[in-house]
Specification:
single chain, alpha+beta, 4 helices, 21% helix, 27% strand, elongated
């Protein structure tokens, strides 16, 4: 028994494999998302193509996708947010990060907002968008090295709590 690559914590045989093998259908967009990630780790192009929305299948470069799936070492899936995509919904949006390593051992993070649509009662991957990345904003002023230390010692920050360990 092996754990499922999708990161659910369940065994592959009870998690994504029944969906990939066609023994069960994905009841939510997230289940399909996880199964598609797992299919990439297995380089199962048949499932990846089958679960791509019929109206968008011509958009896939099958050879390039197959090569990417085969040659990558898949390191993990992180689901960041899910909007809709439940059993009674018609569409869903899932923001995720998939980490992988290429043949040169270079690490990458594939970050996207995946759009799913229910078509004839089945979930399909329809499209993807680049997610909006929020700029980090500091709520308070940054403690400068030459400012008095916030601990109240009277010393400069760099000579007190700001010392490098």
């Amino acid at each position: 028994m092996s754990s499922c690559p999708c990161g659910s914590g369940a065994e592959l045989a009870q998690c994504c494999n029944p969906i990939i093998e066609g023994a069960a259908a994905a009841t939510t967009a997230e289940q399909l998302m996880r199964a598609r990630y797992t299919a990439h780790t297995l380089a199962n192009m048949a499932f990846i193509l089958k679960t791509h929305h019929p109206a968008k299948r011509t958009d896939i470069d099958e050879n390039a996708t197959a090569q990417w799936a085969r040659e990558s070492e898949w390191l993990g899936l992180e689901i960041m947010s899910v909007e809709g995509g439940e059993e009674d919904d018609g569409e869903g949006r899932i923001e995720f990060r998939a980490r992988y390593r290429d043949t040169n051992k270079q690490r990458y993070t594939h970050h996207e907002m995946a759009l799913f649509e229910k078509y004839n009662g089945e979930w399909f991957f329809k499209d993807a968008e680049v997610p909006q990345v929020q700029q980090f904003r500091r709520d308070e002023a940054k403690q400068g090295r030459n400012d008095p230390c916030a601990c109240g010692s009277g010393k400069k920050h760099k000579k007190c709590c700001g010392k490098a360990a």
